[in-house]
TrEMBL record:
GO molecular function, one term: copper ion binding
Domain Cytochrome oxidase subunit II transmembrane region profile: 1-84
Keywords from the UniProt entry: Copper, Electron transport, Magnesium, Membrane, Metal-binding, Mitochondrion, Mitochondrion inner membrane, Respiratory chain, Translocase, Transmembrane, Transmembrane helix, Transport
Name of the gene: COII
Name this polypeptide is given: Cytochrome c oxidase subunit 2
Function, as annotated: Component of the cytochrome c oxidase, the last enzyme in the mitochondrial electron transport chain which drives oxidative phosphorylation. The respiratory chain contains 3 multisubunit complexes succinate dehydrogenase (complex II, CII), ubiquinol-cytochrome c oxidoreductase (cytochrome b-c1 complex, complex III, CIII) and cytochrome c oxidase (complex IV, CIV), that cooperate to transfer electrons derived from NADH and succinate to molecular oxygen, creating an electrochemical gradient over the inner membrane that drives transmembrane transport and the ATP synthase.
Transmembrane segments: 14-36, 56-80
Natural source organism: Folsomia candida
PANTHER family reported for this sequence: CYTOCHROME C OXIDASE SUBUNIT 2, CYTOCHROME C OXIDASE, SUBUNIT II
């Protein structure tokens, strides 16, 4: 299962996952039924052994299935890379044990975000996930995040929004998202 979607993009990703999973379950069911019936059938039909219609069927139907999966996938890829006019830009820099955030639309608004040590955690906190300073983004606004790293490779991820970007030293990656739910 997925987390509850916090952005329209993640909702579309979940719909695509369900769409593809439905097609795969249908294909597996049909192939499984055919295998089962072939194993338990002792009769041999000459028309099934040398049938041009059957060969045409199992050549054309998979291409239609691939198109049926590929078109929504291409649409979703373009939605992922669509750049809108952002309301705010945040520069995210990955360091070996913490993240730095710079709100470039404001003067001198930057901070570091460290994990909370296990001995300082309260009962309702998540181990190795909760931090001392969280990145705040406005609700119902388009946000652009520029992601890079200072020393080693990192992965900046927000699963409920469908965002995952690699932070690579010397390279600037860009991610756009729209939040429609607080949290």
């Amino acid at each position: 299962g997925f987390q509850n979607a916090s952005s329209p993009l993640m909702e579309q990703l979940i719909f695509f996952h369900d769409h593809t999973l439905t097609i795969l379950i249908l294909i597996i069911s049909i192939v499984g039924f055919n295998l089962f019936s072939t194993m338990h059938n002792t009769n041999i039909d000459q028309h099934m052994m040398e049938s041009q219609g059957l060969e045409l069927f199992w050549t054309i139907i998979p291409s239609f299935i691939l198109i049926f999966i590929g078109l929504p996938s291409i649409r979703l890829l373009y939605l992922l890379d669509e750049v809108y006019n952002p309301a705010i830009t945040i520069k995210t820099i990955g360091h070996q044990w913490y993240w730095s955030y710079e709100y470039s639309d404001f003067i001198n608004l930057e901070f570091d975000s460290y994990m909370i040590p296990s001995n300082e955690m309260k009962m309702n906190m998540f181990r190795l996930i909760d931090v001392d300073n969280r990145m705040m983004v406005p609700l119902n606004s388009q946000v652009r995040t520029l992601i890079t790293a200072a020393d080693v490779l990192h992965s900046w991820t927000v699963p409920s929004m469908g965002i995952k970007a690699d932070a690579v030293p010397g390279r600037l990656n860009q991610v756009n998202f729209y939040t429609n739910r607080p949290g």
